[in-house]
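Hi there,

I know you've been waiting on this one. I reran it after we fixed the sequence typo, so this is the corrected version. Both the input and the resulting structure follow.
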Amino acid sequence: MTPPAVTISTSTVEPITWEPGIETIGTALAGQGVDLSTEAAGVVREIPFAANDRVEKGALLLQIDDRTERADLESAQASLALAKTELERAQALQARGSPRPIPCKPRRQMKPLQKHKLRNCKPSLKPNG
C-alpha cells in the first residue's frame, strides 16, 4: 500500500530587521527605586520629574498644595501689622498723657486684613475640576 501524499508549502525568504521583544501581560518592578513619605498631609500639586528620570540629591520630588497655608501666613502677617499699628497708637496716646487709651482699629489697617482673610477662604471654596 502506498502512503498518502504529503502537502508541502514553500515561501520566499527575505532578510528583515528584527526587534527583539516579547509581548506579555504582567507587572514590572524597578531594579532601583524609592518609596516617598511626607511629614505633612496634603494633596500633591506637582511632581517635577518623569518616570525613569535621574534626580539629583536635594532636588524637589513633589510639591504639596500649600495655598491654604500661604493664605493663613498672609493673614497672620496682616494681623501683626495691625497689632503693631494699634500698639504704636496706644504708646503715642500714653506718651501724651492720655489717662486711658481707647482701642481703635483704623479702617485703612482693616482693609489688608480683610483681603487676606478673603484669600484664605478662596482655596477651600474653589470648585473641583
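Quick highlight: The longest strand covers residues 44-46.

Best,
R. S.
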